[in-house]
């Protein structure tokens, strides 16, 4: 069996590496602490076609498989680890919305082209102050109330908490439930606000902080997954 990359895969890696060395490496140190530069570089990466990697072509993405995506991230990491991480995070969350779930609401699917071209930003919200490695300790919950979910609780350490347009939020399916669900929550939903940034040893160009849900109401159709622990 030949384990070497073929020309097409090698080209994917080389393109990402070349871009990263030319455009990210010279400002890698500044990207650690400058949020505006970081956002500008995310936009630039979108313009260079590094967004929407795992989103199917018919939905505006690149339709890459996991090997192809990994090669992009590896190439980008040559110039900046943090930018490679952020792009990977974005692509994974966007792919969740675009491809992982059956019967996803049509209204939600309408945002996918904007995720594929980097016009909109997403975030994944699972962690809480007292639940990191152990998602079964999650306290935030959503109660189904007719045609809507009412979300209550607080998340912590969420990358892009301040800048995301949409959140994939993991909560318990009812206050006393042990089952987890994932809900799609637009950032401008009433009852949702971001909390303070968490200062870190590295990577302070990106906002990583809390989210508060106080009777935050989303349509029942915003259920992305009822099989939450699998997603977590
Ligand atoms: C920069 C940054 C960005 C992040 N972005 C996001 C995000 O976008 N969305 C999100 O949901 N979360 C995010 N997180 C949170 C991250 O997912 C959690 O930090 C991670 O799940 C670990 O949780 P914790 O920090 O509470 O560690 P803990 O769960 O407290 O674990 C601490 C240590 O104890 C060990 N440990 C824990 N339980 C056990 C056990 N039972 N047996 C043996 N060892 C154990 C762990 O391996 C670890 O070494 C982010 C964190 C950081 C630092």
Characterize the structure shown.
This is Acyl-CoA dehydrogenase. This protein is of the alpha+beta class. The protein contains eight helices and eight strands, in the order H-H-H-H-H-H-H-E-E-E-E-E-E-E-E-H. The strands form two sheets. The chain has a four-stranded mixed beta sheet with strand order 1-4-5-8. Helix 1 packs parallel to helix 4 and helix 4 (66-77) runs antiparallel to helix 5 (81-100). The longest helix is centred in the middle third of the chain and has 20 residues, at 81-100. The two termini are 35 Å apart.
What would CATH call the architecture of the largest domain? Orthogonal Bundle
Bound molecules: flavin-adenine dinucleotide
Secondary-structure content class: alpha+beta
Given this structure, which CATH class of the largest domain is correct?
A: Mainly Alpha
Protein name: Acyl-CoA dehydrogenase
Domain Acyl-CoA oxidase/dehydrogenase middle: 123-216
GO molecular function, one term: acyl-CoA dehydrogenase activity
Domain Acyl-CoA dehydrogenase/oxidase N-terminal: 7-118
From the structure above, extract its key features.
single chain; 232 residues; alpha+beta; Butyryl-Coa Dehydrogenase, subunit A, domain 1; Butyryl-CoA Dehydrogenase, subunit A, domain 2; 4-stranded mixed beta sheet; 4-stranded antiparallel beta sheet; 8 helices; 8 strands; 34% helix; globular; binds flavin-adenine dinucleotide; flavin adenine dinucleotide binding; Acyl-CoA dehydrogenase
